[in-house]
Design goal:
TIM Barrel; 8-stranded parallel beta barrel; single chain; alpha/beta; globular; binds 2-phosphoglycolic acid; 8 strands; 11 helices
Length: 251
């Protein structure tokens, strides 16, 4: 069985005042069953402090993006090694907001995945179709091409996570139906399995896009959904913990 992962993506939200949210997550997690991993990805400005608060607890931390190179003249960018140096163990890459706001191609995402491996971080590689692509019946084609080109071959020997996030469901309150999620997740599992064998069968597949306490149980019960990448609802400890609780109660 794949050990699930509940991951919070704070996006560009949070100042030092948000550290109380981390303290609440750490203490809430202590009373929930240890059957899934729990991750928060705060903005880089808070990563060191969040990692310190997470300390020896079950909460782990991650970055929201990294540069492909280890160092150099890239003003404003952050290397995977710097994220690891802040105590983080994961990094989200290829989020649709990076792909659209920063023009990140699959090739860039694949290079970032290599950077994560180099720095001993687990990349959470995001894929997802736009509404236009779904309506044109291109969802599976888009996902297949993103998987093929955003996941480097070196992933065969590395730990990584894939997140399916339909762009139209992110931050919109429009959640994909369990049928829609199952179709894409089953396809992702099939393709990872074909490409990477049993290693592909063991990768956690996360769903992301308006996951909330009210819809989490149903989505997390799907066979090939092994957790969630949660934006808005990760900004409230109570909601984030409720999603974690829904995840472990399914097991
Ligand atoms: P959302 O964001 O939960 O606010 O829809 C998810 C994500 O973009 O990772």
């Amino acid at each position: 069985m794949v050990r699930p992962l509940i991951a919070g993506n704070w996006k560009m939200n949070g100042t030092h005042r948000s550290l109380d949210l981390v303290r609440d997550v750490v203490s809430g997690l202590a009373s929930l069953e240890d059957k899934a991993d729990c991750l928060v990805c705060p903005p880089a400005t808070l990563l060191g402090q969040v990692s310190q608060i997470a300390g020896e607890s079950r909460l782990v931390t991650g970055g929201q993006d990294c540069h492909a190179e280890e160092s150099g003249a890239h003003t404003g960018d952050i290397a995977a090694e710097m994220i690891a140096d802040m105590g983080a163990t994961y990094v989200i890459i290829g989020h649709s907001e990076r792909r659209s706001d920063h023009g990140e191609s699959d090739a860039i995402v694949a290079a970032k995945a290599e950077a994560a491996f180099r720095a001993d971080l687990v990349p959470i590689i995001c894929v997802g179709e736009t509404l236009e692509e779904r309506e044109a019946d291109k969802t599976i084609d888009v996902i297949s091409s993103q998987l093929k080109n955003s996941i480097p071959d070196s992933a065969a020997n590395q730990t990584f996570v894939v997140a399916y996030e339909p762009v139209w469901a992110i931050g919109t309150g429009k959640v994909a139906t369990p049928g829609q999620v199952a179709e894409v997740h089953d396809e992702i599992r099939k393709q990872l399995s074909q490409r990477f064998g049993s290693h592909g069968d063991e990768r956690p597949l996360l769903y992301g896009g308006s996951m909330k306490p009210g819809n989490a149980a149903e989505l997390l019960a799907l066979e090939n959904v092994n957790g969630g990448l949660i934006g808005g609802a990760s900004l409230k400890a109570e909601d984030f913990l409720a999603i974690y609780a829904a995840c472990v109660s399914n097991l």
